[in-house]
Amino acid sequence: MLTLENLSFAHHSQTPLFSGLNASVGEGQVLAVVGRNGAGKSTLLRLLNGLLRPQSGHVLLRGKAIDRLKVHEIAAEVGTLFQAPEQQLFAARLSDEVAFGPKQLQLSAAEITNRVDEALAQTFLTHRASHHPLDLSAAERRFTALASILAMRPAVLLLDEPQRGLDRIWTERLEGIISKERDEGKSIVLICHDMNFAERNAQSVLALGGRQPIQLSTEDFFADAGLLRETSVERPMRLQLKSLLEIPDQAPRVTG
Ligand SMILES: Nc1ncnc2c1ncn2[C@@H]1O[C@H](COP(=O)(O)OP(=O)(O)OP(=O)(O)O)[C@@H](O)[C@H]1O
Fold first, then answer.
1. For residue 67, how many other CB atoms are within 10 A of its CB?
2. Mind listing the pLDDT tens digit for each residue in 67-76?
3. How far is the CA of 253 from the centre of ligand 1 (A)?
4. Residue 31: closest CA among 208, 189, 154, 252
5. What are the residue boundaries of the ABC transporter domain, all occurrences included (predicted)?
6. Ligand 1 pocket check: which of 12, 13, 41 to mutate, most ligand atoms within 8 Å of Cβ?
7. Cβ contacts of residue 123 below 8 Å, gap of 6+?
8. Do the bridges between strand 2-9 and strand 56-61 make them parallel or antiparallel, or are there none, so unpaired?
9. Residue 1's closest CA among 30, 42, 44?
10. Per-residue pLDDT, 249
């Protein structure tokens, strides 16, 4: 679905943030992009949705270079939840906010209503439909931005730190949405500093900020202590505990 081929990028004339970056995320898969602050995760997200162009290499969507697509074609296929989603909100009513994208697709009024209702239900916001987005809690605002994206029914979801600052209930709701979208065949790219969240939700990891960008299965990535050190990433708590419990008992045996 989404393929990154030998991608290189530098902001202005700075040294390249990354080069020779190869990765892919297929239908029904979640890719977590991890790495220290400043490693280039959010920059990569902007390359994936066509806001930035690579110095060399390609981002391919269904095999087609994304920079050959028109803005409305990208918007229909790729939904982006940015780090500060409240900056994405502008309508006075939550339902209008969520309807904005589908209206640009020139769907029938019935289809727009259907999509808005479904997206609001999926994000637990039906009872908030007539509220002003800025009157909502931070979690509800983030889910409003998510609902706006889901209502477009894009094939690719790019989520920049979607779990940041959410409590347990909203985190579980978010994980439910990610898992449902994945099961429906969406390709999901998740930028994430929370390795527990990444390990629970992603099948593969793209690590930035090390000697070379590298994509591995989630299991292989978190098993590679050298790579975790190199990219300043912590092993998820579940795997730390698992290793501890598997340590053989080194206590001297008492004999006689
Ligand atoms: N528009 C820009 N112009 C110049 N440099 C930029 C621009 N945007 C980001 N940078 C720089 O590029 C580097 C990567 O930034 P980016 O935000 O992509 O990293 P990140 O991995 O997402 O960081 P964090 O985890 O802190 O969000 C940083 O050094 C940043 O200062």
1. 13
2. 888 888 898 8
3. 54
4. 189
5. 2-235
6. 41
7. 143, 144, 146, 147, 150, 173, 177
8. antiparallel
9. 30
10. 56
d(CA 179, CA 174) in angstroms, rounded, equals 9
β-pairing verdict for 204-207 and 214-217: antiparallel
Question: How far, in Å, is the centroid of ligand 1 from the Cα of 38?
Answer: 5
Query: What is the ipTM, given to two decimal places?
Result: 0.96
- Report how far residue 113's alpha carbon sits from residue 98's, in angstroms, rounded to the nearest whole number: 10
- What is the tens place of the pLDDT at every residue in 91-112? 889 999 999 999 998 899 999 9
Q: In sequence order, what are the beta bridge partners of 9?
A: 18
Q: Is 38 in the pocket of ligand 1 (CB under 6 A)?
A: yes
Q: Whose CA is nearest to atom 27 of ligand 1?
A: 37
pTM score: 0.91
What are the phi and psi torsion angles at 28 (to 5°)?
A: 70, 25
CB atoms within 10 A of CB 8: 14
Question: pLDDT tens digits, residue range 32-49?
Answer: 999 999 999 999 999 999
